[in-house]
Amino acid sequence: MTATAGKVTMAKALNAALRDSLAADERVIVFGEDVGQLGGVFRITDGLLADFGDKRCFDTPLAEAGIVGFAVGLAMSGLRPVVEMQFDAFAYPAFEQITSHVAKLRNRTRGQLSVPIVIRVPYAGGIGGVEHHCDSSEAYYAHTPGLKVVMPATVADAYSLLREAIADPDPVVFMEPKKLYFASEEVTLPATMPGFGRAVVRRPGRDATLVTYGAAVPVALEAAEAARDEGWDLEVIDLRTIVPFDDETVTASVRRTGRCVVIQEAQGFAGVGAEIAARVQERCFHSLHAPVLRVAGLDIPYPAPKLEHIHLPGVDRILDAVARLQWDDQPDPTWVAA
Amino acid sequence: MTTTPQAIRRASPRTNRAAARPEPAAPLLPSPEPVRLLDEAGRRVSPECAVRDYPEPPTETLRELYRRMVIGRRFDVQATALTKQGRLAVYPSSRGQEACQVSGVMAVRPTDWVFPTYRESVALVSRGIDPVEVLTLLRGDWHCGYDPAAWRTAPQCTPLATQTVHAAGLAYGEAHQGRDTVALVFIGDGATSEGDFHEGVNFAAVFRAPVVFFVQNNRYAISVPLSRQTAAPTLAYKGVGYGIASEQVDGNDPVAVLAVLANAVEHARSGHGPFLVEAHTYRLEPHTNADDASRYRSMDEVETWLGRDPIARLETYLRGAGALDDAAVDAVAAEAEAYAADLRTRMNADPVVDPLSLFDHVYAQPTPQLLEQRAQVRAELAAAEEGEA
């Protein structure tokens, strides 16, 4: 185990999780584009080749469908592959392998084959990236039965959830918020946090619930802090995993607060936030004092860097949504026909 | 040595330079013509243009090849009949391709892995898998009816060429763990146009994974002819671009197909990396029972290929060699009839599938949401039962 205490970045925590998983289980192998000698374009696999050798950590041809399909075969042979997709949008060539094979093999074979693969996807924007480097693609995966979709937002969760993903018997799409890679927190590693399917209340509050995950969590927390000035005491729930989904924690919170805003960085239409809003409405209808609102990215292709701040859900847009939660029991003017 | 004008030209400095520099791709190239050990009349021929030596498999092996081809064809005809009777949703026949279907599984060991497509039902029964389990996918009670881990046979792949990459990974993973397993992948001519074919062959080549890519070029991808899949001289030439050895073979010559595949498997197992084999063959039936082949090919063409029947060819050869007589042929035919009769009986039973099993293998443990849906379906079923009572 890599015992670490003090300020640690998410990138270092992910590296430690890979390192500890490689040391703990000889079936674990790590591969992808530039993950060997270079240590990954974000250095998440830094030093793994040197420390574990090229049978455990290696570079592959530049072909994402090949990487994921290769992982399927390796998993069939009894190994536990952890693959890196270099950027969110570069994972799309692997989509068929992920949706038709990784996700379905257990089901197709009535459990006689399983493919415990972890597909790491650096995702989301806010880093000034050029096109095809900033997508939030979680909805595609969450819509696919058979995949688990994990969205850490904190350093301790990044470590703990990645360890759990690698040990999990099912395939996991592990979404890493690039913007938070180099944010640091005081943590002690190895850390064991609540497992898959357990949301966490990051900030307790009485007046409304902000439900969010991944890259949007720090933004929601910032908004909740700012809302104090407006006299609102907001609860913030970090889902941590989208699949499995923790209805219980979300439902309990919204029944208590009576108001809910769902926040995601991904474009809103047909997104994960829409699913959450529907689930909250189904389960909490009689506790709600206002419609469930969503704050999401705009329904546009991810914009060029100079305009991404318009696209990304920020504190102001979240506070605007909170202001529309019918505190005076009047209809939301947004929806009143002109 | 007499000096002729030709000899002078041969000895020119330019030609000498070329001769001194070895062509690195040469050992990878296939034979210029498909390898053939039996001609269309079942006579033994020597493959003069073959770039490798292909010893004839032992007679006992050829007798077994014949037996399995006859049973395989009887199975195929029975499966087509079961489709017409409504017992199967659909059936993609491989009639006419028995030399490839059977040789593909006879060339590997039970401990090797096979990656079939939907057209490999004959290969699967030839591997020993229960025909009812093979037809489960097409009968529609589950996707894969046999245990892939026990049979070391992947589920039949319906998306094209995706299994080539799985085979590369599996073969590399087995070698990584110190086992000498070979992976044999069946694919068709159409699938060689897919990106995953390229990625699978390339990964296998780069990692020197022991994979045999076995392309059954049956001339059509549903209706689209080979000329729309490739401009390569033949599909076997695709190997050289990835740095892997390749061969082409007459796919209706069972002796040659088995000999070429045996060489390819040995090449892979002994650490020389992957191997690509293209078998030139023909799909006598439409793509499936739902297809109308008269829209894209002539009966004359089909007739021509009927004359190249692989079973008749091997039977003629074995009879001529004194390795097969009327009694042996009749015994195999009787065995095939009994096999088909047993299959008919068992396929005429209606399988009972528990609807609640829909939730069993989505994840190792169902999510809370799946448990809710399971309870809902259970309630629906109970209500329906109550309504009937």
TrEMBL record, chain B:
Q: Where is the composition biased (Pro residues)?
A: 24-33
Its gene is pdhA
Keyword Oxidoreductase listed? The answer is yes
Its needed co-factors are:
thiamine diphosphate
Q: Which UniProt keywords apply?
A: Oxidoreductase, Pyruvate, Thiamine pyrophosphate
Disordered: annotated segments: 1-36
Residues forming the Dehydrogenase E1 component domain are 66-344
Query: Mind telling me which NCBIfam families this protein's record contains?
Result: PDH_E1_alph_x (TIGR03181)
Q: Which Pfam families match?
A: E1_dh
InterPro entries listed in its UniProt record = Alpha-ketoacid_DH_E1_comp, DH_E1, PdhA/BkdA, THDP-binding
Source domain of life is Bacteria
- Protein name, UniProt field: Pyruvate dehydrogenase (Acetyl-transferring) E1 component subunit alpha
